[in-house]
Design brief:
By secondary structure, this protein is mainly alpha-helical. The chain has one domain. The protein contains five helices and no strands. It has helices at 6-11, 14-28, 32-45, 52-72, 80-94. The longest helix is centred in the middle third of the chain and has 21 residues, at 52-72. The protein starts with 5 loop residues before the first helix and ends in an 8-residue tail after the last helix.
């Protein structure tokens, strides 16, 4: 499994998770009413020490990545989900910050 860099891991937050869900729905037609409950069930099975971002990344790698690769005709282990996460994180860094914040 291709890992996120430590910096990307630290920057991944709930806003990014929402954006990733949106990208999955918009670009690939994921039925979020089906996928979000699957993720919630996955989170419940994790230890309490596991944070939500780690859960999401692991769920995406194990469950979403194979589906994306099937849709895109890629090899099963190609890191498509990781690349999507990296894209969303980098895209959010390019957005102009609020002019009132310093």
């Amino acid at each position: 499994m291709k890992k996120l860099t430590r910096e990307e891991e630290d920057r991944l937050d709930e806003t990014h998770i929402k954006e990733i869900w949106n990208e999955l729905h918009t670009r690939f037609g994921f039925n979020l009413k089906e996928w979000k409950p699957r993720f919630e069930k996955f989170v419940i099975k994790q230890s309490r020490e596991t944070n939500l971002m780690s859960c999401f990344y692991q769920f995406g790698h194990d469950n979403i990545n194979p589906v994306l690769n099937e849709i895109l005709g890629r090899q099963r282990l190609y890191p498509t989900f990781t690349n999507l996460v990296e894209y969303v994180i980098s895209k959010s860094n390019l957005k102009p910050q609020n002019k009132n914040s310093k």
